[in-house]
């Protein structure tokens, strides 16, 4: 079946990317202050020969420390997702944006794509978004086709590249028409941490080459 992409506008993409890439430059200047020296004592002794001024003692070197704020350590990327109730267990790879502004998706329906310009599973805020084709020529029906059968309360586990397992509990399962997709919600970078899983659903529309709807599963971390 023909490949499909999630509709993501160029403007939104640029906003998300620019929000992700924020650089902080901190400068550091160091200045030393000389300790005031006491004034020469006044005596009644007749002045003697004028002493030749010796070299000024060198001040001790003042250590300069680079005060640039260290960059935060990025969280490990997700490499696997499992929804045990639906026998979903599949690899996850990082993806970005296509030239036409749509979200990139792995060509193989057996792999899910994590939107690498957004939050990471296990992060403290925002929606970590994973998406996959419902099917593909290469692998046929993909694991995410089973998302439509997921029930609220189901367990979802995302494994990161360092082996950390992030546990989530499904809160909502929705079928949304593609032309009504709330992209600002799906790709939110602020707010409580959530996991958003997206694939295609509904009727196949041969005239335009994609399905009519998206199946969207939202889950919240369990804290386990």
From TrEMBL:
> Which positions, given as ranges, span the membrane?
none
Keyword terms of this UniProt record: Hydrolase, Signal
User: One Pfam family from the UniProt entry?
Assistant: Sortase
Lineage top rank: taxon: Bacteria
Q: Which Gene3D superfamilies match?
A: Sortase
**Composition bias type Low complexity, residue spans:** 40-70
List the molecular function annotations (GO) for this entry. hydrolase activity
Signal peptide span: 1-34
Q: Which organism is it from?
A: Cellulomonas gelida
InterPro entries registered for this protein in UniProt: Sortase, Sortase_dom-sf, Sortase_F
Query: Region Disordered: what ranges?
Result: 30-78
Record bears the keyword Lipid biosynthesis: no
Its recorded name reads: Class F sortase
Keyword DNA repair included in the entry's annotation: no
Taxonomy-wise, where does this protein's organism fall, top ranks first?
Bacteria, Bacillati, Actinomycetota, Actinomycetes, Micrococcales
């Amino acid at each position: 079946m023909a490949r499909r992409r999630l509709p993501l506008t160029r403007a939104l993409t640029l906003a998300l990317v620019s929000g992700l890439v924020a650089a902080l430059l901190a400068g550091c200047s160091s200045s030393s202050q000389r300790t005031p020296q006491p004034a020469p004592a006044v005596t009644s002794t007749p002045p003697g020969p004028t002493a030749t001024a010796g070299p000024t003692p060198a001040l001790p070197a003042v250590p300069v420390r680079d005060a640039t704020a260290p960059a935060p350590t990025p969280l490990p990327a997700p490499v696997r997702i499992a929804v045990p109730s639906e026998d979903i267990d599949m690899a996850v790879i990082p993806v970005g944006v296509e030239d036409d502004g749509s979200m990139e998706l792995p060509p193989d329906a057996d792999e899910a794509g994590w939107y690498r310009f957004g939050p990471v599973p296990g992060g403290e805020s925002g929606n970590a978004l994973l998406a996959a084709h419902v099917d593909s020529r290469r692998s046929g029906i993909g694991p995410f086709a089973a998302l439509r059968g997921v029930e609220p309360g189901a367990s979802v586990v995302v494994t990161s590249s360092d082996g950390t397992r992030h546990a989530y509990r499904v809160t909502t399962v929705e079928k949304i028409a593609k032309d009504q997709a709330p992209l600002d919600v799906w790709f939110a970078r602020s707010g409580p941490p959530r996991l958003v899983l997206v694939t295609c659903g509904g009727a196949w529309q041969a005239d335009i080459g994609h399905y009519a709807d998206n199946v969207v599963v939202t889950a919240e971390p369990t804290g386990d």
